[in-house]
From TrEMBL:
Biased composition (Polar residues): 18-27
Major facilitator superfamily (MFS) profile domain sequence ranges: 76-511
InterPro entries: MFS, MFS_dom, MFS_trans_sf
Species of provenance: Eremomyces bilateralis CBS 781.70
Record's bilayer topology term: Multi-pass membrane protein
Descriptive protein name: Allantoate permease
Keywords in alphabetical order: Membrane, Transmembrane, Transmembrane helix, Transport
Compartments reported by the entry: Membrane
Amino acid sequence: MTDKRPKDNGKMIPAYSPNKTDPNISANPFEDPQIRDYYVGVYEKAKYECRHVFDAEATCTEEEEKKIVKKLDWHVCLWACIMFFSLQIDRGNINQAVSGTFLKDLHLNTNDFNLGHTVFLVSFLLAELPSQLVSKKFGPDRWIPTQMDLWSIVAMSQAGLRGKHEFLATRALLGMLEGGFIPDLVLWLSYFYTSRELPLRLSFFWTALSITGIIASLLAFGIFHLEGHHGLAGWRWIFLIKGTLTLALGIVSFFLMPASAAQTKTWFRLKGWFTDRELSTVVNRVLRYDPRKGGMHNRQAITPRRLWTALEDYDLWPIYMLGIICFIPQGPPAYYLTQILRNLGFNTFNTNLLTIPSGVAHMITLIGVTWLSEKFNQRALFAMLQAIWTLPCIIALRARTPVTGANDFRYFCRAWVSRNSNNVGSRSISAALCNMAVQLGGIASANIDRDDDKPLYKRGNQVLIGINVLSIVLCLYAKVYYVIKNKFERIDYTYNTTDTASRQLDFRFAH
């Protein structure tokens, strides 16, 4: 995507604020010597890992910037998508397993399956914040690969499940180990991209979910042909083979995740990713767009005070409310799709193949809507498209028509809250809180379809229709809230305030 930001005789001048229409905000904040000197002191005090690359006078051409963004997409965004692929492989295995004899072999019913999903989500939720604290202390480049390898071992162990208690235990362990992975990965991405670029990259990141669903379904189709091989059911082979794949990706991730743009040179990558000029471009374009990104170094722990400040930042609560409510309607249709198709008479192989169309539709709409949201600088209104998209699909399900077109705009909340957090410390916590909100919604959605409502869950779909309408209302509320909030900014507030992060009144909330 071509960057339309203004250039001055070839000089790169990334926007200082998400609201580029404000004439009172300098395109390059470091042109003001007072602001430059202030942030030099901030970076030195924080021991920001890229502070030696900071250059208020750095320049680059538009062509050079395009090339560096492409290089970032190749090295950073692509591998982030591959790592997210590994998460979805292990999170989604259970859906392929139930298309076989999983429930029958373990003597489980729909309510038991709901309980397992709830245990997973509660464990996932409880691990979000601790995982983010660990990641900020030791670095996402170390913690994320460790998570991947640990949960892959548990995923493989599911091949040996014998009953309900073992099922619940492994769901709890998976939740604890996978919790925090998404905000940890978003934090790592934010080290390389500007806040304006991040949403589109997160849409690629989330498109990996659909690609994973398609690939996982095709893999399941093939793996189920191993049914009975060495005396193992097909679903046991699914856990074993896919867990092994994730383990391999986790090991490789230790070598493909640098701690920062300035730390790509190492014993196994002697030349690093960037030339000196490219490194200057990567670092300074990010800092000019968001100078506060250098306010912490990438091995700096979150203090209790920073934690409390992020928790009480009520200006981010509208996004958290969206995270809880807006994704409930699409949860049960997606989670129970394989069971619904089996109940309609499709066999194991066709059931897995019939889940592919929803993944294809998801990819097309996700990237398209993300591009439009950035082009028009609108988030709440485009996020509301999810509810508008999902509503007819749920109505169709209520009318006994199996539709697989529900979309997923959870990335909107994560990118949105990252953009509105306004510094690294707040961003680390708010990303985890946002994901916790999404998991709360997931817990609710996992308990809407009940065993006595089979096979088409008509009562559950009626509840989903009502929640879907509420999500539209919440999107409109968030839009109005941030529009009004932005009207109370003060031009000189930056020089005098003791507030931090999104509480600073010269900060523009994205809406």
